[in-house]
Amino acid sequence: MPDREEGLLANRKDKLDRLRQRGIDPYPPRFSRSCDNATAIANFQAAEEAQDPESATQELSLAGRVISMRVMGRAAFLDLQDSSGTIQTMLRQNVLGEAYDLIKDLDVGDHLGITGPLIRTRTGQVTIEAHQVTLTAKGMRPLPEKFHGLRDVETRYRQRYLDLIANPDVMPVFARRSQIIGSVRNFLNQRGFLEVETPILVPVAGGAHARPFITHHNALDQDLYLRIATELYLKRLIIGGFDKVYELGRVFRNEGIDQDHNPEFTLLESYEAYADYNDVMEMVETMVSNITQEVWGTQEVAYGDHVIDYTPPWRRLQLREELAGRSGIDIDDFPDDASLSQRVAELGLDAGPRDSRARLIDKLISTFVEPNLIQPTFLLDYPEIMSPLAKGKPGTPGYVERFEAFAAGMEIANSYTELNDPAVQRERFDLQEEIRRQYQDEEVDRKDEDFLLALEYGMPPTGGLGMGIDRLVMLLSSQPSIRDVVLFPQMRTLQHTPAEQTPG
Hints:
- This protein is α+β, with helices and mostly antiparallel strands.
- Helix content is 33%, strand content 25%.
- The chain folds into two domains: 3-142, CATH 2.40.50.140; 171-314 and 375-484, BirA Bifunctional Protein, domain 2 (2-Layer Sandwich).
């Protein structure tokens, strides 16, 4: 640790000791405040407009973190920040008496409670005049230099608390995330869906193409997996008699980290009996447009260089036709793995011996189609080999009733008319297991015998949906990375040395 930082830490330790020697508790158990800073300022301004001086000058108790200090002899001005905003406070020696000496042991980063009336200074700034000052928490580490506008990405993600303190535009993103999730719940609840919870630790990591995380349960002496999807349990509930269910929860996929991927993320999955993927399409475009209207008051939201218009109906494109038009490959002309692999390689894409037909088609879509789907678009009717849980499309052998929804070149939702024939589902699972064996691919879907048993009791026609909440928040809050909408994204663990521990 640099000598300068060691000196700053030692200085704060000295101040902490002096406070305790004076009988001041630097970490009191409570402080009762009247309201937050923004409310106090709004009420003061309203009282001024109403020409109600008694209300305007009533005594309040406010609290927050000291983010700046300006000491001028017998007076000091401090800015206090809480989650609602910042308010200036004025400390004067002739008002506080001996209590004013507290200023000698305060630092930027400390938490204070201030009791007194609101006034306007000579410059017209709304200010709380301190009649009583309470130290509510002593900060033992200095905030980073230039913390107003902290931009180091590693620090921002690893120490999110500093990001929230330093960058005023960060906290509103997460407030908006909460609003979006609340809107999703309200929309589904109003449509008669029941929110449920399903296991996170599962014996079979099924329902999606992904490599799982594995753990071991000691009491059962059994390996378990962190779920990669909630699909197979939610469909068990449809089999059991619920007509409409959904779950909003974390899922875990042992995959790479990039702008669009985090190993744990929030997934919405919903299932509706007697619906198909057409019904789900209508639901998705209606839900997202409603959320956009609630959050922004408009259907148009800027994202990067584009303005995305979420007004229904969204564009609908056939996957096979769109892929042929953009890549020059009609996938039906290459019915086996070898011929498709050769054609994909001719286009300059990586097509290795461990790439199955499904993976090759996915690479083509990701390369040639997805980046061009800027406005909200449904891509329809996927090859069966890519979609083992989806129902076949009548009259179109080899294809299933599946859509993926895209906006700004990013996938945000996936939906099937769900496969409900247990014999066909078993065949599909067996084929996936063969693909896993042949290509050593740990991301293909897994056979779940318990789910197959449940399916044999009969599942009605069902429309299912999976939607990535983090990506939806990215789009609706104009954030370029999933790490900007996840409070604590996955980071490589740093090893701390004893010298880095907080003193005191």
